[in-house]
């Protein structure tokens, strides 16, 4: 595993154990594939439809341009309050669960929290999914995420026809229909309310603009917007892909804080100094969370939520040793391996947030750290994810002291999203 290149990407990156340096990265082994990697084959038929994650060519370019305004800071600002509300619901639940003897498994709780948050931000939907286990739509969303992961683990189901004819495939299609029906209903109702071209201004006076508002009002230079099918695909992509990856990032972040109490305490001190007497986070606080941000980035280095990506080369690539890859080659990048490569990172297994100080970051190759990929196809929602991680960490550290459960260390399983086979178990101590 090693190099990934997309349109506009010019750097090659080493795999773990490869040769070269951060300033002159050289691929040691290129894993060639005659067919798309299994994750790509599966995601082509995933629950989110043909959204930004899957699209190519002019249609991808059009969608990217239309979606970008939805992640402008003016749109993201009001989301902070909603994120904080969702985090507080999770923390209230944890207060009811904690005992001195028993640890709490975090991942499921964090996943529900990020889903709750993203539903509010995507289409102002108050799901109450963290407290209401009977919501059929929320259960469908969680089931679909599990179905995709189970399919990846079952090689026979990588074949589309085999999966289509199987009982699992039938369950998958049924769940997709239910999820799409809900999204279609929300889109129809919202389009009706936005018939007046001045409605956006009216809405903005009543509430925040959500992701769906932005998509429905988006037009390209030809005054062409997104079709209903495209709208559904992009809303579903934002929701399905966004909540799972952010849940992974937050869960591993809390685990790292538990493993390293000195860094946990330093983050808590910084957050208290920033917030003062306040018990919530505001947009303007993010830029002041210097050390907290370094800890988040170091967690993303050691535990990237998406441990690998694949790309099709849009142009031939020649490496420094003379080997070449033709246009159209499918290449994959082991982000997890890259982030732990000793030729790129000194003592890569050590948790050291100072790697991300301004001076150290300036000396490092720009493609040495890829938690959100890079190039034109980088993660469009990376600022959204970073904001949510900051909110979750800040509010958690204000309320709890975290420590690991030595009897239940996490067992990493690299699927589409980096998870732990046995969950992430931490002891939580309520702070006075």
TrEMBL record:
Domain of life: Eukaryota
InterPro entries the record matches: Cyt_P450, Cyt_P450_E_grp-I, Cyt_P450_sf, Cytochrome_P450_Monoox
Molecular function via GO: heme binding; iron ion binding; monooxygenase activity; oxidoreductase activity, acting on paired donors, with incorporation or reduction of molecular oxygen
Gene Ontology, cellular component aspect: endoplasmic reticulum membrane
Binding residues for heme: 379
Region Disordered: start-end pairs: 1-29
Keyword Metal-binding: yes
Similarity field: Belongs to the cytochrome P450 family.
Protein name per the record: Cytochrome P450 4B1
